[in-house]
Amino acid sequence: MKPFNYIQANSLVEAGAILAASSNGAIHSGGTDLMGCLRDRIWMDEVDVVVSLSGIAQLKYIRKEGDAIKIGAMTTLTEIATSSLVREGCLMLADAARATASPQLRNVGTLAGNICQENRCWYYRYSYRIGGIIECVRKGGKKCLAVGGDHRYHSIFGAVKKCVAVNPSDTAPALVAAGATIITTNREIPAVEFFTGENGKCSTVLEAGEIVREISVPFGGEGTKSAFKKVALRKSIDFAIVTSAASVLVDDGVVARASICLGGVAVTPHPSSEAAALLIGGPLSDERIAKAADAALAGAKPLKGNRYKVKMARAIIADTLAECS
Amino acid sequence: MSASEKILSLTVNGEPKRLLVKTHWMLSRVLREEIHHTGTKEACGEGACGACTVLMGEKAVLACMTLALEAEGKSVETIEGLMSAKNPHPIQEAWMEEFGAQCGFCSPGMIMSAKALLLRNPDPTLGEVREAMAGNICVCSNYEHIEAAVLSAARKMREDGAQNG
Amino acid sequence: MANNFKVLGKSVHQKTALERVNGSARYYSDFQIPGTLVTRFIRSPFPKAKISRLDTTAAETLPGVELVMSYKNFPQTFRDTMHYVGEQVVAVVAVDEDIAEEALELVDVEYRELPAVLSIEEALAPDAPEVFEGEPNCHDWELHYYLSEKDPESGLWTKKEHANFHGFGDVEVGFAESDVIVEAKGLKYAYTKSPAMNPRGALAHFNSGKLTVYTHSQGMHHEKTVLAGVLGLNVTDVNYVCEYIGSSFGGKIAEPSDINHPTHYLIVACLASLELSKPVRCVYTREEEMLCGWSRGSLSDVKIGFKDDGTLHAISYDNWMEMGSGGDKWTIKNSLLATGTTLYSRNCKHMRGKLRYVHTNRFLSCGWQGYGAPEGHYGVEVAMDMAAEKLGIDPIELRRMNHMRGGDIDAGYDPLLYKSCYISSSGISECLDALEKRSEWKSRWRHPSEKSGRYREGLGIAIFCMGAGRPGPGNNTSAEVKLFPDGTAKLYSALAEMGQGQHTVQCQIVAEVLGIPYKKIGLVWQETDSTPWASIAASSIGTWLQSWPTYEAAHEVRRQLLALAAGVLGVEVEKLDIEDSVIFVKDEPSRTLTIGEAMGTLGIYGGTHELIGYYSHEVPHPRCLRDGKPGQLYIPKEKGAQLVSLVVDTETGMCHDVKVINAQDVGRALNPKIVEGQFLNARHGVENALLGSDCIVDKKSGRLLNGNWIDYKPTSFLDCDIDPIIIEKPGDPTHPFGATACGEGAACPTLAAFSNAIYNAIGVRIKETPFTPDKILAALGKV
Ligand SMILES: Cc1cc2nc3c(=O)[nH]c(=O)nc-3n(C[C@H](O)[C@H](O)[C@H](O)COP(=O)(O)OP(=O)(O)OC[C@H]3O[C@@H](n4cnc5c(N)ncnc54)[C@H](O)[C@@H]3O)c2cc1C
Ligand code: SF4
Ligand code: FES
Ligand code: FES
Question: Which of A133, A197, A269, A272 could form a disulfide with A172 if both were Cys (CB 3.0 to 4.6 A apart)?
């Protein structure tokens, strides 16, 4: 690990100022992703200062405000997974948090950190120790090594700026399916617009120095049911091959509202409004679920080595919807 | 003191410590190399095995993923803090009885995870034990014995608690 | 001694249990010496390359750097040609890790890339580049023997001739005589990694002419002796300290004399310490461990011929073992264990085993946990399942008909010394019975054709036998026991304790023989300076090998003690016994002596202060010979059966509700909890089967993509259940108390059992491990 300066900020304003004054500062929430990146020195530019938000107690809360659950950026995944408010108002988010990483990582890993985390492409994450880091397109290099190499865990919905690394966040699809809003020091961003592959190494639309302060999640009212599913090789401490989150409001036996989002399948979380639309206006029957699941994968463009993910994703989106009935 | 060094004050196993650390040092390094508590192990250094688990307050955290300075002002408990006046803690006793350690390299981290669990849930089910311990890897794959040890420790601690209370 | 043991057979606490649970157990990385220097490496970015330029001057002059090592100054450990991504190019030894890392960046190195081969298939291709110049990539095993003559009376083979395969009879004739023939071709055992919780490393301290090495070892006396030779030091000037190992499973055995062996952490630390006369630490990170730790993988073809009634008649077995760029070729011999030489020796009349090892530009492969046996079992036990289907015989029944029994001939051989020997005991039938019952096999097992729907249950079985018994030369091992007047005794034993429980069991033996409580037995094991020679604890032979010297040394003390007591009591030695530390006259139990009274210790003047027993065991112990006849050797083998049950989700390709039942005949379970713990090791097979265990290498760059514990996944608490069933069949002659072995066995049959269970669920055979969802979905025709 390269030496860097470390500062605990007392407020977001102070954190912003430190970042602005640095040449390449990094925000540290739980640090569970950041420390891995620094340890393996996967980035081309060195981080000169790490700004920790862990001293800002005011960023740690889960509360209900009107029709929304407001979650402070520093709220940990454990807190979200066990919050009765979140379980009641957005079960898929609580379950996504619970399915993330491991108990110890969830104890410090935050929701903000989870949605801002770096991708897990094994070329991108390759440690400098064993022959030096790999400079792929996402780091400003010329080529994506995964497309012509081993991409079994990569995108089945094509590349963004030639990169096919998937967004690895487990909570991201739940937030997108929930229609959450990400509130930063500068603006409010709908979750569905928050993730991007356009922004170089960063997997979000955040600008330099911009900090997530809160995540606002609509409270699913009476009749709304949501569910989250994750497929990973190992049942703990493992990134997903595919995840899916869905929320359905059934009114009088008829689907009135539905939203579906897949994770681990594309450069960003992958919602499918077409699939959701197919569900609306009828019962949540197996048959209609199957149609919706097909629709959610209709646009898939898998690579040679990851066609299985299409099948897998289709199956678990259907399972997730079935669980909403 | 340069920008890359800072004073860290924390409590380790009840003892206040004040020491000069490099800003990029991890808690595991400081515990092992600076405070010489080598009971905390490092097996992966990347957050994926739990060998370095310690308690920060009452929470199990990974010392290999925690910057030392994140422990500023905090109270840290390591495996060395578990023995009281020569007597093993009930979790340690249970570990010995149920053969929770094969090579023993995962044991300190496992035991700290078990302690964190039993602090918040004194009567866990087998399923709860598994979920709570699932961030700890035992390469000797001694899981059935470890589960038995955690359940037996829970029993002991409840009984002890009932006696003392 | 009668069967009513006082200490043996009981799950007494592990000897060093407290140290292991309170953080005081010292693994090599826990030794701290002020002023210790640290080591960091530059590792090759290319699978094959020649260093075209190397300038280390800038690094050398960086303050805090004490030594820069490369092929230029340390040619015995560094080379100018790299054979795999990650091979060490340069090591920097410096006062701290930041300076060492900074220095690495100051090294000016350029490479000329050379063509490489990254898999067995590539290495075998007609115009494949050579891994080692001037050497073919594929080698025939040099110790293939044809067993041509048998002694009619003993049944043992008496003549062996060099051949281009190993075996007996004539397989062509054997297949011609067979009614049913099955062939399993192209079975691929992925290149998997040896598990070790504590990554390897060493701390070397050369001081005042003496070198102390703190490391991990499965055979510290052997390693130390070789190391002293390599370093040009007197054996007496090297002390090897290995208090706790942090798990090894064979993968940490060091061979300091061989540059192709992954022992560089040791040599680098020692050479640097000798050069600088300072303590030097060389500790691998998990990524380095993933690269430098041992691997294994192979391709195999199996053909088995049967009579109509299911009697196995002939086996032909071909194995191509990947060795990477160096490694240990001996591993390959164990792949024969599952064939007609041993596991199916009962009925197999014609056997042909052809072994080859193949070099690739990957990190090294060596034997770990099963030492080649899991690969052989994978091929043979899959073929046996295919045969059961073809013959219309229940898979358990087919094995029952054909597996080895006690007294059968083991022609799986030790190539150096013996042509064949006797299998001392089997117990596989009992294991199969136990599995059949525990799994409710009879009511649950159904043919795949009867299964439908999304979720399909599968049951799969495989039997196994593993090493346990290495009669070759050099396997002498020793122990010393001291008894003190206060009734305590100390065992001096260098046998490695990796978590397998040997320390505990050996102390139990001392307690049993001396008639004193287990708690009164102390143990000295930590270093070579204070222990007598013990052989390498490998091939699951710890029990078989070390129990004899412990037993004999304890008996020697017992004899001395009773002789003293006999003098005090004025009775004959034969009339005396010891129980609970009390010496008594058997016919007059009221006449007793304490150990102190027998030893008569009064103080500095007079009395006996310690009784010492020492025994050096030349393998084989006379009691391991049939009727005491030289050359007629019994070998115990580790043996048993394993059953895997699972549910395949045919939509996602995932396996759920995974359960492994491992039943094993251990002769006698000297400490049942420890034995159970060994069976839990079947989980490594689960990892290799389902959790994607494979060293995934980028086909273009040769880089290991999953060289860490996030992408390469040891099993967690949640992935499966293991149900251990201990079978005891006392009476095995090869051990003083009838115990046989348990260790690596549980990992041998698992991949075959998984393959069979998945086949049983979906009716399609997947030939390559691991059985990940992509392969299962492909097998189902869904992708
Ligand atoms: C072994 C292991 C397994 C894991 N498994 C999973 C898994 O299964 N699923 C999963 O989703 N994740 C997984 N993770 C990834 C990750 O560590 C966690 O998901 C965690 O939630 C990240 O949160 P953090 O607070 O620790 O983030 P940090 O490491 O603090 O931050 C992550 C990134 O986000 C940036 N950032 C942090 N906070 C903010 C903010 N408020 N505003 C703007 N930017 C910010 C940081 O600069 C950094 O680049 C795993 C990690 C490890 C080491
Ligand atoms: S997928 Fe993206 S991150 Fe991975 S190698 Fe390609 S460009 Fe780099
Ligand atoms: S060493 Fe910290 S999690 Fe593995
Ligand atoms: S006891 Fe060896 S890793 Fe758990």
Answer: A269
